[in-house]
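Researcher: Let's do a round of design. I'm pasting the structure tokens now; please hold your answer until I've finished.
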């Protein structure tokens, strides 16, 4: 399980109301200034374990900036973010990823020359135990499980003997932990490609994939880090209605796999259809926090969306 390396920053556990879900992430009075621009103005909200929380607001409201503060890209001017009882603010993005927060980007950021499978395998790296020297020099050997041993399958006598020798050596001397981790990563990555519905594209180079598949691939890569909290930044951008419908189902399935989800999205039908709760920002300030139904009837939210009802927006 992801555990922070330093214990000194561990905060007292966040109080929990009887019967209430555990608070997984807490944004606490966060202010972020870029020179004279106040991008986030005393923003506070919580994300509960197992929920799908929508983060909405008009353009420039501060949604992506909130993601960036949560994932360590920006350090808040004041206030802090706590995740799973530990302070996030001030940590580097890779460390925050290991703590269990993962994200996708508004503008897709894949490794364009790598295959879909390789892109997802990169995501599994943060969970590997073997260091670079350990991998290069095969420093660590572990006793493999029976199914991990080299198989003896050939009918050609000489080849069969060679396979038998390899199997016996693996039984006696063990196998490189790096090799076993790579094999497990490949298996897990293939399963994730299947989960997001693009297993047939595993060996295609990412830049050649259709746009919708690139978005799904980003989600698979983010899931490969085994996040407790997955942050999706406008995952439906550029999707047609049928693709949005599939995405809605996928987001629910992600939650059902045990991940908590934070969703930034402009498509209100999607937000209202999939979220349990919605936080609304306007000009860097939180103006509403409630169920999709409550928020869509909130006069301040309606005014923020230029007088239209949220459904219409
Ligand atoms: N690196 C930066 N430097 C200066 N100002 C920034 C920076 N990043 C964001 N801002 C400003 O912070 C404010 C919030 O921007 P942000 O991108 O978080 O909004 P958003 O709600 O995600 O908008 P959109 O829906 O258009 O993506 C905007 O005024 C933006 O110009």
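Researcher: That's everything. Go ahead.
Model: Designed sequence:
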């Amino acid at each position: 399980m992801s555990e922070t390396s330093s214990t000194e920053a561990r905060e007292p556990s966040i109080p929990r109301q009887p019967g209430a879900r555990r608070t997984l992430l807490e944004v606490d009075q966060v202010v972020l200034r870029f020179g004279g621009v106040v991008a986030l103005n005393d923003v506070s909200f919580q994300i509960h374990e197992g929920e799908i929380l929508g983060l909405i607001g008009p353009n420039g409201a501060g949604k992506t900036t909130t993601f960036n503060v949560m994932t360590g890209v920006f350090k808040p001017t004041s206030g802090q973010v706590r995740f799973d009882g530990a302070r996030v603010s001030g940590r580097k993005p890779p460390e925050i990823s290991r703590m269990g927060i993962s994200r996708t980007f508004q503008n897709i950021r894949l490794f364009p020359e790598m295959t879909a499978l390789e892109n997802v395998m990169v995501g599994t790296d943060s969970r590997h135990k073997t260091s670079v020297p350990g991998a290069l020099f095969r420093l660590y050997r572990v006793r493999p499980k029976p199914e991990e041993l080299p198989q003896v399958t050939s009918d050609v006598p000489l080849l069969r003997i060679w396979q038998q020798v390899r199997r016996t050596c693996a039984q006696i001397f063990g196998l490189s932990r790096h090799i076993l981790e790579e094999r497990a990563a490949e298996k897990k990555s293939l399963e994730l490609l299947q989960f997001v519905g693009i297993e047939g594209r595993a060996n295609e180079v990412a830049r050649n994939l259709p746009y919708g598949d690139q978005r799904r691939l980003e989600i698979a890569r983010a899931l490969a880090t085994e996040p407790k909290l997955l942050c999706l930044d406008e995952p439906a951008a550029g999707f047609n209605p049928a693709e949005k419908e599939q995405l809605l189902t996928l987001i629910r399935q992600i939650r059902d796999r045990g991940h908590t989800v934070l969703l930034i999205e402009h498509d209100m039908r999607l937000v209202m259809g999939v979220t349990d709760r919605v936080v609304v920002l306007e000009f860097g300030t939180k103006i509403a926090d409630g169920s999709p139904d409550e928020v869509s009837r909130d006069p301040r939210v309606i005014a923020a969306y230029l007088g239209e009802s949220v459904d219409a927006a």
